[in-house]
Design brief:
The structure is a single chain. The protein is an alpha/beta fold. The protein has a single domain, classed as Metallo-dependent phosphatases (Purple Acid Phosphatase, chain A, domain 2, 4-Layer Sandwich). It is built from 6 helices and 13 strands. The chain has a 6-stranded mixed β-sheet.
């Protein structure tokens, strides 16, 4: 199954220079946040495949005008083609506004998922906006990661962890792929497409992490 992930910056290649067939072969699209609702609706319409999303810290407008035709997976475990996908959007709280959380708030969200996690037997893909603490995050409060995500990965060891928020053009040299224990970590900045269970993806993550 081919999955396209995206976050934080709209792709001009897709939005302004769309060509028929651009999404050929893609089975699922996942947004890790901070993309315009109109853009997600555009992508979903022309790809004609399911588009799942979580909120970024700049997605307050979704509350009144959500992306049309797309599915929010906040605090949900969604199963698609047998793949279990858990969504936990938002960033560390650094100002007033929605979709921002203190560490204790994120811990509370995850505790509320305990029964769902038991029933599903875990998850295969974790989708968040912010990264986990100490891994792909940055020192400023806004871009701090959550310890709660690290604990989730350590406990459930999913195949993939997809996040956004830390742009790859920030100068932090954040890699597209890396490996955390048994999990391939993907920075969804702009767009990235991969084949689920493709050993080449894991091999590249291992190479970068070494």
């Amino acid at each position: 199954m081919k999955i396209m992930v995206m976050s934080d910056e709209e792709s001009r290649h897709i939005w302004e220079y769309y060509q028929p067939g651009m999404f050929k072969g893609i089975d699922l699209i996942i947004s890790a946040g901070d993309l315009k609702a109109e853009y997600l609706s555009f992508v979903e319409t022309f790809s004609n495949v399911p588009l799942l999303y979580v909120h970024g810290n700049h997605d307050e407008k979704y509350d009144t005008a959500p992306p049309e035709g797309c599915e929010c997976i906040e605090d949900q475990i969604v199963v698609y083609n047998g793949i279990r996908i858990l969504g936990l959007g938002g960033s560390m709280r650094y100002r007033k506004g929605k979709h921002q959380y203190e560490e204790k708030d994120m811990q509370r969200r995850i505790r509320r998922l305990k029964l769902k996690l038991m029933r599903s037997g875990g998850f295969d893909i974790l989708v968040t906006h912010a990264p986990m603490a100490g891994f792909h995050d940055a020192p400023d409060l806004c871009h701090n990661g959550f310890k709660a995500f690290r604990e989730l990965l350590e406990q459930y060891r999913p195949k993939y962890y997809v996040h956004g928020h830390v742009h790859m053009n920030y100068g932090e040299k954040t890699p597209r792929l890396s490996l955390f224990q048994d999990t391939v970590v993907i920075n969804a900045y702009r767009t990235y497409t991969f084949e689920y269970d493709d050993p080449a993806v894991r091999k590249e993550a291992e190479r970068i992490t070494e």
